[in-house]
Each structure stands twice: as C-alpha cells, then as structure tokens.
Amino acid sequence: MAKIVSAFAVGLLFGLGLLVSGMADPAKVLAFLDVTGRWDPSLAFVMAGAIVVSTTGYLVARRRGRPLLAARLEIPNRHDLDPRLIAGAAVFGIGWGLAGLCPGPALTLLTVAPAQAATFVVAMVAGMLLFRLVPSAAAKPAVQGADA
Amino acid sequence: MDGFTPVSALAGGALIGTSAALFLLLNGRIAGISGILGGLLAPPSRETGWRIAFLAGLVLAPLAYAGMGGGLPPVTVDAPFPLLAVAGLLVGFGSRLGAGCTSGHGVCGIGRGSPRSVVATGTFMAVAILTVLVVRHLVGA
User: Fold this and answer.
1) Residue A103 within any structural domain of the chain
2) CB-based contact B74:A25 (threshold 8 Å)
3) What's the pLDDT score for residue A139?
4) Could you tell me if B55 and B37 are in contact, meaning their C-beta atoms sit under 8 angstroms apart?
5) In this model, does residue B73 exceed pLDDT 90?
6) How far is B141 from chain A (nearest CA, A)?
7) Which are the contacts of A81, defined by CB distance < 8 A and separation ≥ 6?
8) Residue B22 lies inside a defined structural domain of this protein
9) Which member of B24, B87, B99 has the closest CB to residue A142?
10) Domain assignment of residue B18, yes or no
11) What is the rounded CA–CA span in Å between residue A42 and residue B132?
12) B26/chain A closest Cα distance in angstroms
C-alpha cells in the first residue's frame, strides 16, 4: 500500500514539475525544438534542473542500496548500443517533433486539453500495443519491466 | 527568443528531478513514463497497482496546480487531430522500441550516466529538431 501511495505522490510531483516548467505546453516544446526559428531555450533549463537533482538522487540511492519501500533497485543494466535503441529514439523524435508532445505531458494534459490529449494518448497506447505485436521487437528488455 | 522563462523552467525541472529521485529512493524504480505506461499493457501483476497510481498522480497534477491558486496553466496545442494521432502512434511505438522517452532516457538515464540513454536522447532531440525544421520551415507553415 505504501508503494502505491508513494507512486501516486511521485506522479503528482512529476506532473507539477511538467506544468511549472512549461514542458507540458506543446507550443513551448516546439519553440525549443525550433532552433532556426524563434528559439526558446527554456527547456534546456528544465532538462538541466531535472538531471542535476535526479543524478543526486541516483547517487544517494546507489549508496544506500536498498530502497525504502522495495526489496531492491530496479535499474536498467544494459550498456550496449543496438540498432533498436537508435531506431526507436528516431521514431520517437519524429512524433515528438510533429506535435510537441511526449508521454508525460500528454498524460498530464488529459485534464487540461482533454480532446487533444486523449487523441494523442489513445494513439500512443495503440503504438505501444503495435510494438508488442512485432515478434522480434518483443525480445527481452534490459531488466524485465524496468526499462527506462 | 520569445517567452524565455529560465527561472520557472529550472524550478519545474528541479521538481521533475526530485520526483525521479524520490521514486528511486522509495520504490526503487526509474520514473520513465513510457515504461510505466507500457508495463500496464502486459497482463495484470503485482506491479499494476503502483503503475496506475503513478499515472493517476500525473493525470491529476493540473488539479493540484490549480488548487494552489494559479488556475490551469495556459497550454497551446496547435497540431490538428489527425497529426496528433500520427504523432501519438510514433511516440508510443518509438518509446517502446527505444526502451524509453524524454523522462526515462532524458532525465533518469542521463542522470545515472547511461551511455544508451545519452545516445537515445541525442538521437530523439536531433530528429525532433529536424522534424520541426522540415514541418515549419521547409514544407512551410
């Protein structure tokens, strides 16, 4: 139960971060990606702030070893660069660039711009289901159920 | 450089990072949204509960934000519905094939120095920038 409560609180905090930072606004994301237009570098600051804090958390978590509410840390342990990683990231990048939406902001926007966010989210889930149908693609992830 | 907001960007980023750090310290998990959602598409397991709880928090965040007094944040979704559907399909498929998205690779993965995440983030940033270039400046808006 504690695990579920903490997951909810952490998800809420994540969503608040998306809203405060501007990352949940597709127009702002596209302005960041539009480097040859009227470039808005704000999202680089979002990434920088997030990475600094998450790195600190990672170092503390690794030192402690065992998380507070679970038996062990579930961290992806692969280091190889395979074609699937690159191809997947490229396909993801096209979609991200087309609408300015990625999975976190799309879910957060379900309560702000329901029709548009739901259209994106339903299609996104369909894309994830499609992935499960690709036989070779369904090969095992780095840590079962713990991929980034 | 319209609408440059470094302070709120940094503050919001720190909140996202705090969330990722807490998830690792408490639940021992990576706060990768596509991974958390994708895991729900498998048959129900002991993991189903926390995955739904995390996503519920994410979806309800705007209500908490509004409850703190600011009202809902201004959001502009310019993409028409067919484009949203195509983009969603690509983002869903790509995030699973590439085992991560902006949060899992971009924040958590880079944060722990994963070479896979550094390469994935560099790739999707470059491709997204190229996509915007083509859509906005070459095809013509």
Assistant:
1) yes
2) yes
3) 54
4) yes
5) no
6) 12
7) B115, B116, B119
8) no
9) B99
10) no
11) 17
12) 5
Cβ contact, residue pair A67, B26, below 8 Å? yes
Q: Which of B8, B72, B90 to mutate to test the interface with A (most CBs of A within 10 A)?
A: B90
* Residues 40-99 (B) with a CB less than 8 A from some CB of A: 41-42, 47, 49-51, 53-65, 72-79, 81, 83-99
- Residue carrying the six token digits 């702002």: A28
* DSSP single-letter state for residue B137: I
Q: Inter-axis angle of helices A83-99 and A26-33, to 10 degrees?
A: 120
Q: To which residue do tokens 């067919």 refer?
A: B82
Q: Chain A contact for B39, CB < 8 A?
A: yes
Q: How many folded domains does chain A comprise?
A: 2
ipTM score for this prediction? 0.95
pLDDT at B117 over 60: yes
Residue A101 structure tokens: 């939406």
Question: Do the domain assignments include residue A89?
Answer: yes
Put simply, whether B127 touches A (Cβ < 8 Å) is: yes
Contact residues on chain A for B72, CB-CB shorter than 8 A? 112
Helix, strand, coil tally for chain A in percent (to 5): 70, 0, 30
Q: Give how far Cα A92 sits from Cα of A88, A89, B34, B96, Å.
A: 6, 5, 11, 9
